[in-house]
Specification:
Layout lengths: L7 H6 L4 H11 L3 H9 L3 H8 L20 H43 L20 H8 L3 E5 L6 E9 L2 E9 L5 E9 L4 E9 L12 H4 L2 E7 L6 E8 L4 E6 L1
Antiparallel strand pairs: 1-2, 2-3, 3-6, 4-5, 4-7, 7-8
Helix pairs in contact: 4-5, 5-6
Length: 253
Amino acid sequence: MPNEHETVGAYALGILDDAEATTFESHLAGCEWCAQQLDELAGMEPMLAALADLPGTGTPSLGESLSAKPAPRVVEKLVDEVAERRARKRRRNFYMVAAAGALIVSGPFVAVAANGGGDSDSGGSGTNRTLSADPAKDVFDQIPDKLTATDPVTKVSVTVAFQEKEWGVGLAAQISNVKGFEKCALIVVGKNGERETATSWTVPEPGYGLPDAKTDKAKKPLHVQGGASMDTSEIDSFEIVTFDGEKLVEIDA
C-alpha cells in the first residue's frame, strides 16, 4: 500500500478496498494534514459524474451508480482538476492577504483618495479631510458606487459600496436591523458560482441599526470593510449570511 498521505485522494473517491480503507481511517484519526486534504476533496463526486460523460473514459453514465472504481484515465483527469483548483485557491489567498494588508495599513487613506482623483486636495494646500474613528465608515462614505437591499423576511438591510482595485474589488458595507448574538459574513458570489468571503464579524447581543434599541450604539448601523479577488464584472451578487448558513439579505450586482 502507498504512503498513507498519498492515499487520501483514493479514499475520497471510494476506490480503496475494505482493508485499505480501514488502514487509512486509522491513520486519518491522528493526521491533521490528511483531514484537511480530505475536506478539500469533499464534494468531488459531482465532478467525477461530469467526467464520466467524457468519451472513452469507460465510466458509468450520470444515471448509473458512481460507486464503481473509475478508470485510471478518469482518476488522472480528476487529480489534475483538483490540483488546478488548489492552485487557484492559493492564488486567491495570496491576493486576499495582499488586499487585507492594504486595507489595514491604509484603510482611512483609501477613503480620502477615493473621490479625490489623486493626491492633491484643495489645490495641493495639504489640507486633510476629517476622518471619523471608524475607518470602515470613512471608506463606505467615500465610495460612490453603492447597492442597497432589505430582505422582506429577516428585515435586515445592507448597503454595499464597492470599487475596482488592481487586486480585485474593495468593499465596505453598512448593515442595519440585525440582531445578536450572531456571527456573520459578507459573501461575494461570482457569475460562475464561485463564492468568496470578503469579511466576517460578530453581532453582539444588543444588535446593530435597531431603531427601538435601548442604547445609542445599538441604534447605529454597523460598518465593515473587506475585499475579494474578483473583478467587478465577474460579480453576480453580494450576500450576508450567518455562520449557521442562514441568508440574511442578498443584493444583485
